[in-house]
Amino acid sequence: MASLIAILDLKGKPLIQRSYRDDVPPSYVERFLPLILDMEEEGEQVTPCFSSQGINYMHIRHSNLYLLALSRRNVNAVETIFFLHRLIQVLEEYFQAAEEESIRDNFVVIYELMDEMMDFGYPQTTESKILQEYITQESHKLEIQVRPPQAVTQVVSWRPEGIRYRKNEVFLDVVESVNLLVNAKGDVVRSEILGAVKMRCYLTGMPELRLGLNDKAMFENTGARGKAVEMEDMKFHQCVRLSRFETDRTISFIPPDGDFELMTYRLSTVVKPLIWVEAALERHNSRIEYTVKVIAQFKRKCTANNVEICVPVPEDASGPKFHSSTGRAHYAPEKGAFVWSMKQLAGGKEFLMRAHFGLPSVKNEQAAEKRTPITVKYEIPYFTVSGIQVRYLKVVEKSGYQALPWVRYITQNGDDYRSVSLPRCVYCA
């Protein structure tokens, strides 16, 4: 796989590097940034993977760092990039933030981590919880190294043996984020659901868990009936037995201890807007007035929590005055907008809010077209917009103890901004 892994600053100077093979000289690290700059000057697209003089360069950028992997062989580039991301995650687990300063302050620990995470260019242990058992931040004192836990040398490298709990519990959260792109007419241009199954396990021993979802492929294979969901771009934690999943779509795994993300998925189906916002403004010479209406278009038995509607205003707006039928509104000049906040919004409800701002200066009205769109933040517990359901969650352990499984569903806003325009605009989330 990789012949050399290096961490560089933004000027291309190596902060720390580790050679795993002898076929790539360390001097090639300093050629990385000049190659990037040459591609930018020539108008070429800088890709995460490229080759020069028979050397393959694979890199990612995080904060003020470059993480670089070099190889002379035709290696699996995706696996290498994924390893670099895992290295960043481990460094953040150790130092809270992976930045140039934290790298310079912890050379010894990082060298030990790089030695344990990769051997002769091949990834080994990448679970931070296992690494933290025998590589601590005090290890820079060069004390005698303790014997690595057995998990490092066995097949299940993400879970150590000998775990004991008085009360065996499993918590499972299905979290879905809804991304919508809406034009000024209120038409949904883009719709996407990004889901994640997150778990928290407090189980004794080395248990095996089996999770069944209302997956469309599973229903077709088993002949089961009911509402099925067709998931795309599914990504699993390394603990999942992929061969078992490909055979009968059962998610079988031995879980890590504590918190972890079991899987992620995507659905590119058209989603009915959950929260609909209509906003209109009236512009006068010295003031501007907004009328904002919010409609909860989800089930009446559900409630959206911590709802925030962010409406942009002109940069020179001043003297804000608000009147709302529920919640509270405040001016956020650092965002160039006012925010209407509601602790709870019940399904089927409709509310109105009015805002008034003074305009001390006169500007071109075309500037309104350049404003950021209206955005909404929310969280709806006990509800999934895709209809995904946990059909069963079984815990099997040789001692035969009984475990308590807990399942929770959450739907929240995504990261996409919605494309709308004023004076008459429609927004949905």
Could you please describe the fold and organization of this structure?
The C terminus is likely disordered. The chain has seven helices and 24 strands. The strands form five sheets. A nine-stranded mixed beta sheet has the order 11-13-9-8-23-21-16-19-18, with no helix packed on it. Strands 2-1-5-4-3 form a five-stranded antiparallel beta sheet. It is mostly beta strands and 429 residues long. The longest helix has 19 residues. It folds into three domains: 149 residues, Beta-Lactamase (2-Layer Sandwich); 112 residues, Sandwich (Immunoglobulin-like); 107 residues, Sandwich (Immunoglobulin-like). The two termini are 44 Å apart. The radius of gyration is 26 Å and the shape is globular. It comes from Mycena rosella. This is AP-1 complex subunit MU-1.
How are the SSEs placed, and which strands pair?
Blueprint: E1 4-9, E2 14-19, H1 32-41, E3 49-52, E4 55-62, E5 65-71, H2 77-95, H3 100-104, H4 107-117, E6 118-119, E7 122-123, H5 128-131, E8 169-182, E9 188-202, E10 208-213, H6 216-222, E11 232-236, H7 242-248, E12 251-253, E13 258-267, E14 275-283, E15 287-296, E16 303-312, E17 318-324, E18 328-332, E19 337-346, E20 350-358, E21 375-381, E22 390-396, E23 404-413, E24 424-428
Parallel strand pairs: 8-23
Antiparallel strand pairs: 1-2, 1-5, 3-4, 4-5, 6-7, 8-9, 9-13, 10-12, 10-22, 11-13, 14-15, 14-24, 15-20, 16-19, 16-21, 17-20, 18-19, 21-23
